[in-house]
């Protein structure tokens, strides 16, 4: 037998850096024995910490970051990692199906449908407004028609305006609430508002048609407020949830964060599909199986009111689920606030974000603005295309069926975006640039030959461009803007930044809806394409590519910025690959240094370990650490714990009679990375000089003690 073979009946020296597992053969001694004050061998130190500092999905065996490799080696490494991950996922799906053929369906329901349920309801109702408007026009032309005598044209137009304004207000307000009170409260509040809004839409009435339109418009404003809040709250909670669960989920965060958020967002497309299909079914039920006009008033009343009442049932369930089944939605935010000793809204982080990440805010908000002009502009294609292809049919059902085809093609774009969002050779930035470019082409081509493309001779080409514009809008800026508007900003103001970006995006939709009322079709096609070109330029210049960069590393950089020492951070979050062109031109990446960063990471972890060790001992002294009263978990294995015990001044942990290192068992899965994450008093903190007798780092860690201003308190 090979001398290196592990035998279950013999103790062996542990392999440096090996992560213990709760199963398998015994591996021998629990930790490396080092006398205090003796500096460990650097190579051995790297081996101990390699699983924390150099995870194998982004670093080679030699410790080289994948983006630092020559192009050919980079391609080989990335393909190897992604292929292995794909094989592992397929094996997992196979095992799941072997145990229970329906288990992948239940997994998808838990990880995509439930997180995106609010956005699904949003897509259902908001796009229903545009879908049922032709039915209203066909049934009540005296109110919804051109120069209608019974209703004010301003109030009819206000149906669209108030809907969009309600969304904008909700995006701003709930974004701030999500960062101030917490993600969980924002989730519950949004679901409750949407439920009440659906009841208002279902029961909207008036003494005359004008009164009904006014009631209908304000009901949409109220519902829109809840819908607007879904954007920042769903995005931030979806991307932060896995980050709070340890190193394995951090790996998943790097490899699958984009897919996780996008699969929640694409529920918006399913909402559109279900709404359009249900409207078709309801119209056929109440109109004796026919979709042709004229439509009876009772038919229209039953059709549109039931289309709002049915999702109200699902929204009520969503209120229950978020209230009782999502108790930890705010965990990551609360941890970030503890690090900064902030209890309310973190105004200082907001100010620092605008100062350090202003270019990113321009990219996310400006890109979303340009996209929503395009997203609304797709309706131009729809109206013109359907008018030509249907031969001027007056049937509402004809338009609905063609819209159903469009939604199905859009869903294909959503799903392809979720599959490639985390691909390091395509990813967020490239996807958004290509999407904007293709939308620009699909609009600018017919703009200068509109008469030809809307004639029978050119209608097939027009049809292709119509569907392609829908596809690339989803497989591009519509999916990417929702994701990056949250992930490129720090946790304390993530929801606020996302809400602001989404709000400015809806301003683009508002601009389009107002502008299109005052210009003709040809002029519209002259105006719209250039927003795609502008969006592509904004993306190229100001948007960083965060594909493959986990949120924890971005938070680690933020801790240095928050401490007033951004130049002391040397990690991969400022690698040129993960910075925008604007940031590179400003010299943000000039401090990138892998060797210094490795030393910093160990010292940052030492600060974290020291704080938790001190807090644990204080609880033991006070009798608070018994009978399951557990401390926060961490990512450290036994070797890391012992390394810190034998290279840290143990006298600094003597507190109220507790002395010496404890041998109590510890949990290993905490995601926090700040010495005060457990609530330690800054006055009792161990300074860098005291806690590390021979610190290899040349830079002070931002995790060390610093004064706390009255504003932060």
Automatic annotation (TrEMBL):
Low complexity bias locations: 662-672
Positions of transmembrane segments: 155-178, 185-205, 211-229, 264-290, 302-321, 357-377, 397-421, 433-452, 497-519, 525-543
Compositionally skewed regions (Basic and acidic residues) per UniProt: 1-14
Topology class, membrane: Multi-pass membrane protein
Ranges for region Disordered: 1-26, 613-635, 648-713
InterPro entries reported in the protein's UniProt record: MFS_dom, MFS_sugar_transport-like, MFS_trans_sf
GO cellular component labels: membrane
Keyword terms of this UniProt record: Membrane, Transmembrane, Transmembrane helix
Polar residues compositional bias, start-end: 695-707
Keyword Transmembrane: yes
MF terms in GO: transmembrane transporter activity
Pfam families tied to this protein: Sugar_tr
PANTHER family cross-referenced by the UniProt entry: SOLUTE CARRIER FAMILY 22 MEMBER
Protein name: MFS phosphate transporter
UniProt source species: Pseudoneurospora amorphoporcata
Phylogenetic classification of the source organism: Eukaryota, Fungi, Dikarya, Ascomycota, Pezizomycotina
């Amino acid at each position: 037998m090979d001398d290196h073979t592990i035998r279950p009946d013999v103790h062996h020296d542990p392999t440096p850096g090996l992560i213990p597992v709760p199963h398998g053969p015994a591996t021998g001694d629990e930790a490396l024995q080092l006398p205090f004050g003796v500096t460990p061998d650097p190579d051995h130190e790297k081996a101990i910490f390699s699983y924390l500092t150099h995870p194998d999905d982004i670093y080679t065996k030699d410790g080289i970051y994948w983006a630092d490799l020559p192009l050919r080696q980079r391609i080989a490494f990335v393909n190897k990692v992604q292929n292995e991950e794909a094989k592992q996922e397929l094996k997992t799906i196979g095992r799941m199906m072997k145990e229970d053929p329906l288990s992948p369906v239940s997994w998808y329901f838990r990880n995509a449908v439930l997180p995106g349920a609010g956005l699904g309801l949003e897509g259902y109702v908001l796009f229903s407004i545009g879908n049922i408007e032709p039915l209203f026009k066909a049934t009540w032309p005296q109110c919804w028609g051109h120069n209608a005598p019974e209703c004010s044209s301003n109030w009819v137009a206000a149906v669209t305006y108030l809907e969009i304004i309600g969304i904008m207000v909700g995006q701003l307000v709930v974004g701030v609430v999500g960062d101030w009170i917490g993600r969980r409260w924002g989730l519950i509040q949004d679901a409750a508002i949407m439920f009440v809004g659906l009841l208002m839409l279902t029961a909207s009435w008036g003494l005359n048609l004008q009164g009904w339109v006014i009631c209908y418009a304000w009901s949409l404003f109220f519902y829109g407020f809840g819908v607007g809040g879904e954007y920042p709250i769903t995005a931030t909670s979806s991307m932060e949830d896995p980050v709070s669960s340890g190193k394995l989920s951090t790996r998943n965060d790097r490899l699958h964060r984009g897919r996780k958020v996008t699969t929640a967002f694409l529920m918006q497309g399913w909402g559109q599909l279900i709404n359009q299909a249900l409207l078709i079914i309801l119209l056929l039920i109440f109109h004796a199986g026919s979709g042709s006009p004229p439509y009876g008033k009772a038919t229209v009343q039953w059709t549109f009111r039931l289309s709002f009442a049915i999702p109200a049932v699902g929204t009520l369930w969503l209120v229950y689920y978020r209230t009782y089944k999502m108790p930890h939605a705010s965990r990551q935010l609360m941890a970030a606030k503890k690090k900064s000793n902030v209890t309310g809204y973190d105004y200082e982080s907001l100010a620092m974000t605008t100062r350090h990440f202003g270019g990113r805010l321009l990219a996310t908000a400006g890109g979303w603005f340009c996209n929503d002009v395009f997203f609304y502009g797709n309706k131009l294609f729809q109206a013109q295309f359907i008018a030509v292809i249907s031969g001027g049919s007056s049937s509402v059902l004809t338009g609905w069926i063609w819209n159903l085809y469009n939604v199905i093609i859009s869903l294909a774009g959503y799903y392809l975006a979720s599959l490639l969002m985390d691909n390091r050779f395509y990813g967020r930035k490239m996807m958004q640039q290509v999407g904007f470019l293709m939308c620009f082409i699909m609009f600018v081509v017919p703009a200068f030959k509109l008469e030809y493309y809307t004639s029978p001779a050119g209608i097939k080409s027009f049809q292709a461009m119509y569907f392609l514009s829908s596809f690339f809008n989803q497989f591009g800026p519509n999916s990417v803007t929702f994701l990056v508007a949250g992930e490129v900003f720090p946790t304390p103001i993530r929801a606020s930044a996302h809400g602001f970006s989404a709000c400015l995006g809806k301003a683009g939709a508002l601009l389009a809806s107002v502008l299109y009322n005052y210009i003709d079709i040809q002029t519209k096609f002259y105006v719209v394409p250039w927003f795609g070109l502008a969006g592509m330029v904004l993306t190229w210049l100001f948007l960083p590519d965060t594909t493959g960069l986990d949120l924890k590393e971005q938070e680690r950089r933020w801790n240095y910025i928050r401490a007033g020492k951004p130049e002391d951070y040397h990690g991969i979050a400022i690698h040129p690959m993960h910075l925008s062109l604007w940031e590179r031109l400003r010299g943000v990446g000039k401090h990138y240094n892998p060797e210094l960063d490795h030393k910093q990471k160990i010292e940052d972890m030492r600060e974290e370990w020291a704080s938790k060790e001190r807090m644990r001992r204080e609880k033991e002294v006070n009798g608070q650490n018994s009978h399951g009263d557990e401390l926060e978990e961490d990512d450290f294995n036994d070797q890391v714990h012992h390394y810190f015990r034998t290279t840290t001044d143990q006298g600094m942990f003597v507190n109220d009679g507790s002395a010496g290192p404890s041998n109590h068992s510890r949990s290993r899965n905490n995601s926090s990375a700040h010495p005060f994450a457990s609530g330690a008093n800054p006055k009792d903190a161990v300074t860098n000089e005291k806690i590390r007798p021979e610190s290899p780092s040349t830079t002070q860690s931002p995790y060390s003690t610093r004064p706390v201003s009255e504003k932060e308190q």
